[in-house]
Sequence to fold (628 residues):
Amino acid sequence: MSNEWKWYINMSHEDADVVKIRSFVTKCLESVGTLIEFTAYNYAEVLISDEFVDHFDGENYYKLAFDFDVARQHEEAEFVTYGSYFLDKVIDLASQRGLTCKRHIVDSDVELRNLPQKIANRITFRNCRVTFMTNSPVIYNYLLFSFKVSYVSDEREDQIIKLLVNLNTGHVDIRMLEAVGSAFFTDSSHTNYGIENMQSVEYAYGVAIKTLEQQIQPKIREIRTKIEIRLAFEKNRIMEYYDQIDNELKSKLEKLNESKNKEGINAINDKLRLSAIERQRRINEIEEKNALNAYITLFNSTLISQTKIRNKYNVKRGKTERDTYVVWNPVLKDVEPLVCDICGTETFDVDLCSNSHLGCMECVSSCSECNTRICKSCGTFNECCVCGVSLCDRCKSVCENCGDVLCKGHIESCTCKEETRREEQKAEKRKKEDRILEFQQSLPQLSRSMKHYMDEYVKKNIDLLDENWKKALFKIQTALTVEDKLKAREILSELDEKYPDNAWVKARLVLTYERFSTKLMSLSRHAVSMAPQLAITHTAFAYMLQKRGALTYDQTVDEYEKVIKLAGNDETNLIANAHYQIGKVLQDHTYDWWGAINRWEKALEIDPHFSPARQAISYMKASLKGRF
Ligand SMILES: [Zn+2]
Ligand SMILES: [Zn+2]
Ligand SMILES: [Zn+2]
Ligand SMILES: [Zn+2]
Ligand SMILES: [Zn+2]
Fold:
C-alpha cells in the first residue's frame, strides 16, 4: 500500500452524532493537509490547503459549527451536519481520495492436515501429476465498496449497492460479500503472517464500477418502463388538450371562410400556428423532465483482510512443471477458484501448457492430432475453421485460398471453398435456367397444350437436349407444312431413338406412316400412356386402330371422340380431322352414310379449308343420288 493511503473511521454509521461528524471531518481535513483549529466547543476555524481550494469552490477559509446551538451563536459559521454543504464537500473529498477504514476478519481454526484431500475434490488439474508441498496461513485482502446510486428523473430513487473485490484475484466475490455481512471483525490481524500480493486500488475500483454498471441495468430498465407509461399518459393529455383547442379554432375558421372574413381568417391561422408550437414545447418539456439519469457516488470503502490458508502444489506433466497456490478460505470453508494465467477468469478446471502456463479450458487445450498442450498465451493455439478442433502449429494446415487454419480432415473443405462452391452451384443453376428458357422460347409454333407439354419436357430433360434437338424440331415443322412426310419421318425416327421419352415425337412419327404395323401400334399406345392429355397422341392411336380395320372401329371412334374432347381451341385441324375420320369409319364399317356426311359437315364447320371432308361429301352425295 502506498504511503498516501490513510485509514479513517467509517462515517456511514446510522446513529451518527456530532462527535462522529466532528471526528470524521477533522481527520479527513488533516489528511489532505488542512489546518483545523477548535477555538471554542464545537466551533473551529479551517484553512484549506491550496491544493484543495478548488474543491471548496475557491474558498480557503471557513468557520465551522458542529452543533445546532453553536451554529445559532455563530451565524457566520457553516453548520456541519448531515446534508450540509460543508459535510457533503468533505464526503465528496473522502470518496475521491478513497478514504476508508480497515478491518480484519477474526481468524478461525483450520485443520490444516485435511486440506489437501478437500482441495483435490474441488480443483481439477487436467492430465497433470499434482503433488501437495506445504501450506501456511497468509493474509489476503478485499476492498468493500459502498455505492449510492441515485436514479433521477421526474422522481428520484436511491439505492445502496455493496461490492466486494478480491484484491488478489481482481474479481468481485459474491459468495464472500454475503459471508462478510455476518463475519466478526477486529481492528487488526495481530499476527505477523505474510501478506499476499495485491491488485492496485485503482484496478479494484475499476472492476467494481464495471460490475456496478451491469448490476444497475435491470433497475434502469424497470424505471424506464415506468417513465414510458407515465410519459405516454401525459403526452396523451397534452395532445388531447391541444386537439380540442385546434378543433375549436378550425370550426371558427370554417365559419369565417364562409363569410370571407380575411382578417379573421389570418388571426385564426396565427393562433393555430402558435398552438402547434406550444404543443411541441410542452411535449419537449415533459420529455426533458422525465429523462433518466443515474448518479453513482462511492460513499465508503473498507479494506478487509482475512487470514487464509495458502497451499503450495507442484504440477507436472512430462518435462513441464511448475508450482502453484490453491487458497483455502476458512470463512467459506471452501477452496477459492484459480485464476487463468492467460485470460484471468476464475476457474476450478485448469490445464498446463507446454510452456508452464496454467490456464482455463478456453485458453489451454490439447492438439487434436499430436496431443501436445497448446496455449493462447504462447501463440500456438489454432482452431480448424470448419470443425473447431484445436491444433498445434506443427499439425495445422493452412488454406491456400484464404489462409485460415484447417485440420487434416478439412484441408479440401475450407469454409471459403464452401462459399465458392455455393456460388458455383448458384451460377450453374442460373445457367441451366437460362438454357431452359432459351430452349423453350426456341420451340416451333405449337398449340397451347403441346407447348405446355414441351416446356415441361425441356425443363425435365434440359441436360440431355442439345442444339440438334432444337434444329430437328424446326426441320420437322417445315417438312410437315410442305407435306414431306418422308423427310419428317426420317428426322422423327432419329429423335425418337435419341429422346425416347417424348410423346409428341412418337405421335408425330406414327402419323407419317400410311400403313398399319404392330410396331407403330405399340408406339402410339406408348405415346398415349406417356401423355394421355394430349390430343395428338390420341390422334396417332386412333389412326393406327383405324388402319388395323373392322375389328377395332368402335375403339377407333372412341379415340377420335377423345381427340375432340381434349383438343384446345387452337387445334382445329385435329378436331376437324377427328370428325372426318369418324365419318370415314361410319361410311366404311357401318354404312351410316348420313351419319358420315353429318360428321364431314361438322369438320368443315370447324375448319372450312379441310378439303378431304368437302371431297368426301361431294362423292357421297353424288353416289347417293345415283342410288336413291
Ligand atoms: Zn483462460
Ligand atoms: Zn499437433
Ligand atoms: Zn502457454
Ligand atoms: Zn476440421
Ligand atoms: Zn479457405
In short: DSSP finds 20 helices and 23 strands in the chain. Residues 447-627 form a domain with the Serine Threonine Protein Phosphatase 5, Tetratricopeptide repeat fold (CATH 1.25.40.10). The CA atoms of residues 37 and 144 lie 33 Å apart. The pocket of zinc ion (ligand 1) is lined by residues 340, 342-343, 345, 359-360, 362-363 (CB under 6 Å).
